[in-house]
Amino acid sequence: MKLSLKGRSYSRWQPFWTLTNKEIRRFMRVSSQTLLAPIVSASLYLFVFGATLGERISVLPGFSYAQFVIPGLILMGVINNSFANTSSSLFMSRYLGNIVDLLVTPISPPQFICAYTLAAMVRGLGVGLAVWLISNLFAELPWAHPLAAIAMAALASFLFAQFGLVAAIFANNFDALSMFNNFLILPLIYLGGVFYPISILPEFWGTLSHLNPLFYLIDGFRHAILGVGDLPFAVAFGVAGLQATILFTLAAILIGKGYRLRN
Amino acid sequence: MQPALRIENLWKTYDGPPVVKGISFDITPGEIFGLLGPNGAGKSTTINMVAGVSRIGSGKVEVFGHDTVRDYSRSRRLVGVMHQEIVIDNFFTIDAALKMHAGYFGVKDDPAWRQMLIDRLGLRPHLGKVMIKLSGGLKRRFMIAKALIHKPRLLILDEPTAGVDVELRHSLWDFVREINDEGTTILLTTHYLEEAEQMCGRIAIMNHGEILAMESTYDLLKRCGRQELVLQLQQPLDRLPQELLNLSARLDAKGTVLSLPVPPGEGSGSLLGRICALGLTVEEIETRQPSLEEVFLDLTGLRNGKGSSR
Predict the structure, then answer these.
(1) Looking at the domain covering B5-78+152-222, what would its CATH class be?
(2) Residue A21 in contact with partner chain B when CB distance is under 8 A
(3) Distance from A177 to chain B by nearest Cα, in Å?
(4) Do B112 and A1 count as a contact with CB atoms less than 8 A apart?
(5) Helix ranges (DSSP H) in chain A
(6) B227-289 sits in which CATH class?
(7) CA-to-CA distance for B78 and B51, rounded, in angstroms?
């Protein structure tokens, strides 16, 4: 066939959709690690707290422990997987060097961030949805404010997608990346009120918990589902929104400057 | 005519001394331009700044008039780069990766063009394989297809034939010539100087971040290269006469083959006359044209081991 280099036409949004699609296909290709494993792990939590302890403990008047803990477990799935998607994808691209495939393209920094974020949100919210569906085997949730719950889950996913981008840029090796997960996110999740309401803690620990950024996400999400929470929903949503804005700004500055991406 | 690539006073420093020191040059649309230099000369850094992989230290780069910083969206669409290092995404097959790469550039998939690249680069039997399963040569072929999938007007090939077998190398250069005939400008770096000599209309030789010479391949060879006279002597010589030593002549181990560079401004006939006047009887005469390799070694100082001392 004769070579013809004629016929170039460009679409402004094509790079964004292509990168989003690539990021979704990336995690779908290894779905046993990226989707199945977190769903199985959350199911085990649900079994422990739903089928065994769920009916025997009550930490919130009017609700079973299973009903209390399920919103936290859903959000845990959302947070962990949103973070894991952006952090592992961007870090691996840096590590393997194939980030240059993106650096030479006309993809703008906002398109870059939005594509990575959107794919991470698809994964995070997908896992959250699966955890909720499985949780119906153990307890039914009242869904007091469903739109607020969806908004809070989306905000949590967005926030941790940004955090994943920032972590991937700063991490120098796999150890450093796993430290973000093991020594920062995991403790913050466990101490942020997934398994207990902050209100039952002694005053000092309760006050300290207010410094935990995840407390606002978890409490807000649970508030939207159960109709009760430690904080007014607007406060929880506002603080979480502020955190998301700060991290998004940081990610935008780093990626815009090509920090640790372009030599 | 607007240059395909304009580099103006380009500098780059990492930690330490500058690796690119204020270089400037233009590449004319449609030409094959060679950027040559030893390892660490600053070629890949220059290419990376043009392509957007590295930030520009200072200076200016324009691709077909589009500034690569202020107007990067337009300039990057016009450039295709094949990097020196193998850069692939292990998750995808050749076909999927090519479609995706076109999309990154905002180009709608052109199945005919994609299929043509796949066929011309011999990738057809390997379409269903994920990248990680491809051999080194196949990965390089894929990288060329990837660099061309969005139909760039300027194709940058950074050591495209490194580690590639002879057959593929030949077919690759044929393909590059064809692409060039269609109007694509080529910027090429290679360690195979013979290839550069055959392929490039113009060459810049770079070392220590500076351009040492830049002109047409013909002029470069003529100006900087030294024609050599090789003489088969009838009688072996024990040692070289002083006059020949002064002309940097060399004698082989048997003492029967005499080689000496033709001094600038003197024809080989006149030189031959001087040799015969010394009483030497010449059986056979051969003149060797200067090669780019010799020019390269002389300009970069590598012939005398000076190249890496600065």
Answers:
(1) alpha beta
(2) yes
(3) 20
(4) yes
(5) 14-29, 31, 37-46, 65-96, 100-103, 109-135, 146-170, 174-180, 186-190, 203-209, 213-226, 233-257
(6) alpha beta
(7) 10
In which residue are the tokens 């990965």 written?
B139
B window 249-278, beta carbon within 8 A of A = none
CA pair distance B83, B16, nearest whole angstrom = 24
Q: Say if A9 is an interface residue toward chain B (CB within 8 Å).
A: yes
Where do the domains of chain A lie?
67-257
Say how far apart CA B261 and CA A236 lie, in whole Å.
84
- Asked if the C-beta of A103 comes within 8 angstroms of chain B's C-beta atoms, the answer is yes
Each residue's pLDDT tens digit, A80-129:
999 999 999 999 999 999 999 999 999 999 999 999 999 999 999 999 99
Q: Where are the domains of chain B?
A: 5-78+152-222, 227-289
- Count CA within 13 A, CB hemisphere, residue B24: 5
Residues 156-215 (B) with a CB less than 8 A from some CB of A = 178-179, 182-184
Tokens of A166: 């920032």
Contact A106 B76 (CB under 8 A): yes
In whole angstroms, what separates CA B188 from the centre of its chain? 5
Backbone φ, ψ for residue B269 (5° rounding): -65, -45
pLDDT tens sequence across A32-87: 999 999 999 999 998 888 777 766 777 888 898 899 999 999 999 999 999 999 99
Residue B7 · residue B46 · CB < 8 Å = yes
CB contact under 8 A, B52 and A25: no
Query: CA A188 to CA A173: how far, in whole Å?
Result: 22
Q: Is the CB of A21 less than 8 angstroms away from the CB of B92? A: no
Roughly what angle, to the nearest 10 degrees, separates helices A14-29 and B94-104?
A: 150
